[in-house]
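Re: the 129-residue chain
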Amino acid sequence: MEVRVQNIRKEFGRFPALEDVSLDIRSGELIALLGPSGSGKTTLLRLVAGLESPTEGTIFFGDEDASKKTVQQRNIGFVFQHYALFRHMTVLDNVAFGLKVRPAKRRPAAADIRRRAVDLLELVQLSGL
């Protein structure tokens, strides 16, 4: 799925966390957001996932405006940098968690979930953990 962030601004109170951010991510493309602490990386991810609403600007999934969609409607997931892993679960189980908790109608088969999680761990060179 193509994701397009267009002229996003996000303010927390009077603090501008993001100002006029635009980004195009092609379907299947792997990107990395790099920057110092406080530069807005997590805020941008939270906006795309629907955990925050932009002050200004639009987020598109393909040609569809996703800016007003709920978190559930967006079907986007990401792993937080800190404090969001389940310590009692393996790395593989943490990566697979989002698919495992989907509603039954949308949940892939267990073997498919495992394969997809293994593929992702191999992609980021963490398959040995």
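The chain has four helices and four strands.
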